[in-house]
Design brief:
By secondary structure, the protein is an all-alpha fold. The chain has one domain: Orthogonal Bundle (MetI-like fold), CATH 1.10.3720. It is elongated and about 75 Å long. It starts with a helix and ends in a 7-residue tail after the last helix.
Length: about 300
C-alpha cells in the first residue's frame, strides 16, 4: 500500500482532525485572535496556565522539600542555594511558595466550581419555577448581599473550624448570591426566546428545556463571573490563613507565610514577605485581567467597544 493511500485512509478515518475547519485548528485560531484583540488578557491567561503547571508539577519543580528544617540556615538571605531565602526554621521559601500555589488554586477552583454549579442551578430554577420559590430565593440572595463577604466567610470558618475544606465551603457559600442573581437574569432573558416558546408549545418538559436549552445559553456570563471570582477566592483564602483561620502550619500557604513574616523582623528579613506577596499579587492580577478580557469577548454588550 502506497504512502498516498495510507494518508488518504487516515484522513477518511479522522475527518475531524484533518479537515480544514477542524476543532483543533479552530481552537488555535481562536486563541490567536484572542491574543491579538486582548494582549493583556492573553498575558494573564498565560500566567494562569503557568501557575497551574507549576502547581501540578510542584514535586518536580521545587528545589527542596518545603517541610524539611535546616536549623543552621535559619533566616538565610536569598542566594544561589536558597533563591528566595529561608524562614525561621531554615525551610526553603521558594519551595514553600511553589507548594503554596497548590493550596491557592485548589481553594480558588473548587470553591468557584461549587458556587457556580449550585448557584446556577438555583438561579435558573428560580427563573423558571417562579412563584413562592422565586420569592424565597430572592429574599435569601438579598439577605446574603447585605453582609460583607469577608465577614460572612469569617463567621462560617469560626463556626466550622479552621481547615482547608471548611475555608473552601465557606468561600463557595459566599459566592452563591452573585451566581444566583446573574443566572436568574440570564435565564429570564433566554426564557423569552422563540425556540423556548416553541419547545414549551410542543410539550417539552420544563427540566428538559432547562438542561438542553437554557443552561448552555446562560453559561457565558456565569463563566466570566467565575473567572473573575477566582482571584477574589484566592485573596480570601490568603486573608484567612494570615489570620490563622485557614491552612494550618506546617502546610505551606501564601497567607500563613505572610503571617510568619509579620511576626518576625521585617527590616532584617524582608524576603519572607516580599516573595509570597509578589506571588499572590501576580496570580490575582492575572486572573483579573484574564476575566476582564473574557468578559469583553463573550459578553455581547461589550462587543465593538
Amino acid at each position: 500500500m502506497s504512502t498516498e493511500t495510507i494518508g488518504a485512509e487516515a484522513k477518511n478515518s479522522f475527518p475531524n482532525i484533518f479537515r480544514p475547519g477542524s476543532r483543533v485548528r479552530d481552537g488555535v485560531s481562536g486563541i490567536l485572535r484572542f491574543s491579538r484583540r486582548k494582549p493583556l488578557g492573553a498575558f494573564g491567561g498565560f500566567i494562569v496556565a503557568l501557575v497551574i503547571f507549576v502547581a501540578i508539577f510542584a514535586p518536580l519543580i521545587a528545589p527542596a522539600d518545603p517541610y524539611t528544617h535546616h536549623a543552621s540556615d535559619s533566616f538565610s538571605a536569598p542566594s544561589l542555594e536558597y533563591l528566595a531565602g529561608t524562614d525561621i526554621f531554615g525551610r526553603d521559601q521558594l519551595s514553600r511558595i511553589i507548594y503554596g500555589s497548590r493550596v491557592s488554586l485548589f481553594v480558588g477552583f473548587v470553591s468557584v466550581i461549587i458556587g457556580t454549579s449550585v448557584g446556577m442551578l438555583i438561579g435558573i430554577a428560580s427563573a423558571f419555577l417562579g412563584g413562592k420559590f422565586d420569592l424565597v430565593v430572592q429574599r435569601f440572595v438579598d439577605t446574603m448581599m447585605g453582609f460583607p463577604g469577608l465577614v460572612l466567610v469569617l463567621v462560617m470558618v469560626v463556626a466550622l473550624g479552621p481547615s482547608l475544606l471548611n475555608v473552601t465551603l465557606a468561600i463557595a457559600f459566599n459566592y452563591f448570591d452573585k451566581v444566583i442573581r446573574l443566572a436568574r437574569s440570564s435565564a429570564l432573558s433566554v426564557k423569552e426566546e422563540p425556540y423556548i416558546l416553541a419547545a414549551t408549545a410542543v410539550g417539552v418538559s420544563t427540566w428538559r428545556i432547562i438542561w438542553r436549552h437554557v443552561t448552555p445559553n446562560s453559561l457565558a456570563p456565569v463563566f466570566v463571573l467565575a473567572t473573575q471570582q477566582l482571584g477574589t477566592a484566592i485573596v480570601i483564602e490568603a486573608s484567612l490563613s494570615f489570620l490563622g483561620l485557614g491552612v494550618q502550619p506546617p502546610n505551606p500557604s501564601w497567607g500563613n507565610m505572610l503571617q510568619s513574616a509579620a511576626r518576625g523582623n521585617m527590616e532584617l528579613t524582608p524576603w519572607l514577605a516580599i516573595y509570597p506577596g509578589m506571588a499572590l499579587a501576580i496570580v490575582v492580577f492575572a486572573f483579573a485581567v484574564f476575566g476582564d478580557a473574557l468578559r469583553d469577548v463573550l459578553d455581547p454588550r461589550m462587543r465593538g467597544t
